[in-house]
Amino acid sequence: MDELLEPLIRGDRRALSRAITLIESTRPDHRERAIALLSALPDRQALRIGLSGTPGVGKSTFIEAFGTMLTERGLRVAVLAVDPSSTRSGGSILGDKTRMETLSRNPAAFIRPTPSNAQLGGVARRTREAIRLCEAAGFDVVLIETVGVGQSETLVAEMSDLFVLLLAPAGGDELQGVKRGIMEMADLILVNKADGVLLPTARRTVADYAGALRLLRKRPQDPDGFPKAVAVSAATGHGLESAWDDMTTLTDWRREHGHFDGNRAAQARHWFMAELRAGLLARLDEADAKARLGRLGDAVAAGEMAPGEAASRMLEDLSRRVD
Amino acid sequence: MDELLEPLIRGDRRALSRAITLIESTRPDHRERAIALLSALPDRQALRIGLSGTPGVGKSTFIEAFGTMLTERGLRVAVLAVDPSSTRSGGSILGDKTRMETLSRNPAAFIRPTPSNAQLGGVARRTREAIRLCEAAGFDVVLIETVGVGQSETLVAEMSDLFVLLLAPAGGDELQGVKRGIMEMADLILVNKADGVLLPTARRTVADYAGALRLLRKRPQDPDGFPKAVAVSAATGHGLESAWDDMTTLTDWRREHGHFDGNRAAQARHWFMAELRAGLLARLDEADAKARLGRLGDAVAAGEMAPGEAASRMLEDLSRRVD
Known about the structure:
The structure is a homodimer. By secondary structure, chain A is an alpha/beta fold. Chain A folds into three domains: 1-41, Up-down Bundle (Single alpha-helices involved in coiled-coils or other helix-helix interfaces); 43-256, 3-Layer(aba) Sandwich (Rossmann fold), CATH 3.40.50.300; 284-322, no CATH class. Chain A contains 15 helices and seven strands. Chain A has helices at 5-10, 13-24, 28-39, 59-72, 84-88, 93-99, 101-105, 120-136, 152-157, 180-185, 199-215, 240-256, 259-282, 287-301, 307-321; strands spanning 47-52, 77-82, 109-112, 141-146, 162-167, 188-191, 228-231. In chain A, strands 3-2-4-1-5-6-7 form a seven-stranded parallel β-sheet, sandwiched between helices. The two termini of chain A are 32 Å apart. At the A-B interface, helix 3, helix 8, helix 13, helix 14 and helix 15 of A face helix 3, helix 8, helix 13, helix 14 and helix 15 of B. Chains A, B: This is Methylmalonyl Co-A mutase-associated GTPase MeaB. Chains A, B: Residues 45-190 form the AAA+ ATPase domain.
């Protein structure tokens, strides 16, 4: 049994941290140990909440306030960041912890930044595995935070039970800035900064988004009134408890109607296929395959062999190599 | 030697048509015959021109007029359509031929619609192979026509020596409708319908696009003045000869500077890798792989196995199966 397993299950945050570092490693022996550890985890469930918000919307302040509120209710909260852009600059370890200073010192909370030096596909696998580690460590809520960049929102939605969009108060024109596909994934739209001078704008923005959500097809897995748009203020705390109530109402309804488990099952199938495809393609990155690929690629570029014929030969070669 | 080879090389259009039907087939014995036929083709080159234009821009009329003009110059012209949307409705055989009535009756021309019942990836492979068949059959120009839908323009650009964008006269605001990525691929922008009452608008549109092209980074493989925007009228024939002169000027320059062959070599490498990846992933569609996939997928959905573990087992299984 892995030495990390017992402290991890006890909820030890250092063990959790070390386990995540283990699953982030690409070293083959680490990978083997990670797979064994993941297979030995007990079957615990947290509520997985995907949270997306563009820079400037006050996402860190929101997570601070929302996460702290949840811990005051006796819940343990883990925050995982999925920011593919930050991987280029080598991660944002300092960034994430200083952005959420109160929460990072809270013993009932755990914050983990985006793994550094990872591709989007790699971030996806590691984040899913980190979620399972957080669940095994007894966390009740796992917030998976992402910025609105490229495909990261879809990735996060595909590993979450709930997908929450945090938006800033804005004029009607700016509604268009949120892509239809993102809106369709949202279970809850929170319009932040609903305080002070921005309160009237925030209320109008909520009405605008509520209208836009009504135009989208209602999903059969949702009760009346969902997806919904509400106003919150991370600064004053206004609306946070009510937003949490909305999340639990929606989750309870989905559990009762089988949609919660159904969604997790569909997600697990999806990730199985995604890993399988990635694994197959990874064969082309192995050293001897690469050498052969280079030679065939040169022959194709020189016009000595058709692309299709070269591909057939390489595929035969890959089959023979495993004998 | 394949019985189609000799008549194909002689330029027989019925043999060409049958050869394209052969490469479009997914039957394993047909596929084997197709690969052998493709490998036996002589090394002839046509100018491959990718042509994109949204519906309503007068693309068929343009191809009729432009193609006819080329045949009058003694050139043989093949037209291949890549319209992924038409594959859903089961091809557009009647459509393409009635759209280009004069050209379809011209003995120096050959028109082939999008293969029916094909995915975008499948359309790509078949179109590339059809291009090689047209070249072997002695055609001088292969027009690869596509509609501005999804990824089809990128696909077509990746198999063309020149990429031409056919646009309608429009107000400045509508310039925005052409995505920057598409503009960056264009070697030549033709503003059609530069005749009658639309002539002033067409001229203004040309100026607008010329300005937009100047803002894009000049490509090292291009001589001064390219990429360029010019006015044409498929209805009156105005500008068609001059557009062909532009195409040959650009092509000659690229040939002299090695960019023509360099581009074809890069494209061949690209398609080799694309076919290789598709071939690897196709292993998951084989009957016994599918059965095993179904069982593992069920176990993953039921929470009995982690997605990563199931993927590892399936990958091992795929390796063993080829022994």
